[in-house]
Amino acid sequence: xxxxxxxxxxxxxxxxxxxxxxxxxxxxxxxxxxxxxxxxxxxxxxxxxxxxxxxxxxxxxxxxxxxxxxxxxxxxxxxxxxxxxxxxxxxxxxxxxxxxxxxxxxxxxxxxxxxxxxxxxxxxxxxxxxxxxxxxxxxxxxxxxxxxxxxxxxxxxxxxxxxxxxxxxxxxxxxxxxxxxxxxxxxxxxxxxxxxxxxxxxxxxxxxxxxxxxxxxxxxxxxxxxxx
Length: 228
Fold this sequence. Notes:
The protein is mostly beta strands. It has a domain of about 150 residues: 6 Propeller (Neuraminidase), CATH 2.120.10. It is about 5% helix and about 45% strand. The strands form 5 sheets. It has a 4-stranded antiparallel β-sheet, with no helix packed on it. Strands 7-8-9-10 form a 4-stranded antiparallel β-sheet, with no helix packed on it. It has a 4-stranded antiparallel β-sheet with strand order 11-12-13-14, with no helix packed on it. A hairpin with a 3-residue loop joins strand 3 and strand 4. The two termini are about 15 Å apart.
């Protein structure tokens, strides 16, 4: 085992990586978040969203470059089928944002909001996220006990799937036909009374018989050499 990259060395030692995703070119995106105190929560504005950088036409090392900062809890990332939009979540904002995306360079621009939990009166906060073959977003509502299906083009909530647990954390389509939605959930931080009412907190769920399918995600275009 060897270290490929070290980030956030100027931040608290409690900083850690959170969600990561790979774009259609195999470029890795990974975000960090601040220290999570058991009673006061996450220290804000300590995280960063990073992008793996290497020119595929030239030999040389890879590195993680900061792209979006500051971030409090870097979370869901996904791209549309045309690879000209990148959707992104910084959880405490309770918003889903989108950037214009250049798949050739991995550059982003023109950040704006496509869905706001506050104005849509949706409980919880956006956490992990994926996209289906129709371009609709599927988002875990942490603290909201549900998975949301959202049309990012109209900023509308299309469906909610209620879960028997309070804290779903992320979603991903899988299975032979990408027609099963897998949902991770969180147990840590719940009180004894909460655990009694939701004994399956922390379990992995699967949701079937959905009208939508996910899309293939390529593996990371791995670099043999990295800059520390």
